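Supplementary material to the annual report.
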Amino acid sequence: MNSRSLYQFLVFFVGVCAVFLANQLAHRYHFRWDLTEEKRYTLHPSTINGLEQLTEAIDIEVFLEGELPANFRRLKVAVRETLEAVCLLWRGSYSVSLFGSSFGRRNESEK
Amino acid sequence: MIAVMMKEINEFLYSIIAYLVIGVFLIGVSIVLWVLPETSLLEYGYASMEPLFSIGPYLFMFLIPAITMKSFAEEKRSGTIELLYTLPLTSRAIVLGKFLAASLLVFFSLLPTLVYYYSIYQLGNPPGNLDTSGIVGAYFGLFFLGSVFASIGIFSSSITENQIVSFVVGALLCFISYEGFTTLARIDLWVSWAYYIEYFGIMFHYNAMSKGVIDLLNLTYFVGFIIIMLLATHYSLEARK
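Predicted assembly:
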């Protein structure tokens, strides 16, 4: 009886480990498939190249808050998403502060 | 497995729950998409389906645990789970069958929203001015999210005999796993770990997918989450046998 429940627990434990391993592998062999028509969420290779060559800290401040009309709300979302994509490449060696949006903060002190 | 799935689907279709859940989901989505001035597409002036994908998770969070709360709790309360165990089925097949039935119901609830896609497609100026492939990606995201919630609901149903407890626990777990981690990551105390804490939450992966970008990382996360939840369900059933 006891060995049976131990076996069940082991099955569960091995399953969880396998899932973590699969996630690690996916992290290593990163593959991204941008389905949007204009490839909106993919940075241009030259942008990536440029970002990799930057060495000093950069502060970005965006002032886009308050009651905005629809087209500015769209712009705000697009700006945030682009900056998020850029931030992913920066990996903490740069600092970003975004007014009114909290996502940049973690990068600020990660440095 | 298929037999369990068919039995569950039949049960859904003979009871009012499936119709109620799909109906509430569609009413909620159409109010947000077309009526409320804050999010209405007619006011917004852009042909996009973004409101559907941002409100979808919050509706699913309550509706999917309502579908799955019955699956094991009721069987245990009425004793039919013993009958199920005597059949030539492994408990793995039972869990998987019930999960597949619930995620099929999620799929059925998403199907009617294609009408909105068609409406927005026609309303665009010129007609068809809509990012179709992006929307396909976002639909994938919403379906995966629904399946993850279904696996959470089935797990919470397997730990109790009471349907109400199962529903409350399921909805809470869905909420925590969807939004909890992202909120937790905002606390300044563990700023340098924020990315990794956020990574554990569903929202992080769902947001990426609902934009229409399919990433291997998000896919493995969703599938892995479902597998862990189903394993936990299996374990909790076996432990009580």
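The CA atoms of residues 23 and 52 of chain A lie 26 Å apart.
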